Amino acid sequence: TILMVAIVVILVATVSASFFGLLDEVRQPTPNVAETAGEFVAGGDRDEQVVQITHVAGDSVAIEDIEIIVRVSGSGVDTEARLVNLPSTASSRLLNENIEGNDDLIDQRFGSAELIVDDGVEAWSAGRTIEFRINSGDADFREPPTSPNDADELDIIIVHTPSNAILFEQTFVP
């Protein structure tokens, strides 16, 4: 009987530890980004084809917990890139290691990105704006287009990676 009680106690402890461990993994809190505002200006100049997503209200989100999905479609292009491993270790620009998928879609020149780069800011909080530039050579939103990569639609999705929740999603049709 003592052996049976010991086996039952060990089984209960093992099952409890497994069960409560799984609950911890499932309950990743999703930050409440209550309001955001997005803007995209089409064109081919250095200050155009810029995506700006401003956090207006809600919880702050660590930059390292964010991934950004960028999808472009149109008569001359259908492509996607993911901005990952943020923030970039470079100042004012993204690196190849920060882009999965079509790395030519995202402008990687100096000054082409803000907040998701090494600028000393660790969180996307109210009043802060994520900014990056779409390369007009790979997705031309100009009217009329000046390259064969004529783009009509830009989808931006910001994902909170620990919870896999979507914090922002918008389709821009310039």
Q: Give the overall shape.
A: elongated
Mean pLDDT: 86
Report the β-strand fraction as a percent range.
35-45%
Separation of the first and last Cα atoms: 76 Å
Which spans of ≥5 residues are poorly predicted at pLDDT below 50? none
* Strand numbers in spatial order across the main sheet: 6-5-4-10-11
Secondary-structure element pattern, one letter each:
HEEEEEEEEEEE
Count of DSSP H/I helices: 1
Radius of gyration, in Å, reads 22 Å
Indicate the percent of residues in helices.
Answer: 10-25%
- Category from helices, strands and their pairing: alpha+beta
Number of strands: 11
Main sheet specs: 5 strands, antiparallel
Written description of the protein model:
The chain is an alpha+beta fold. 14% of the residues lie in helices and 35% in strands. A 5-stranded antiparallel beta sheet has the order 6-5-4-10-11, with no helix packed on it. It has a 4-stranded antiparallel beta sheet with strand order 1-2-9-7, with no helix packed on it. The longest helix has 25 residues. It starts with a helix and ends with a strand.
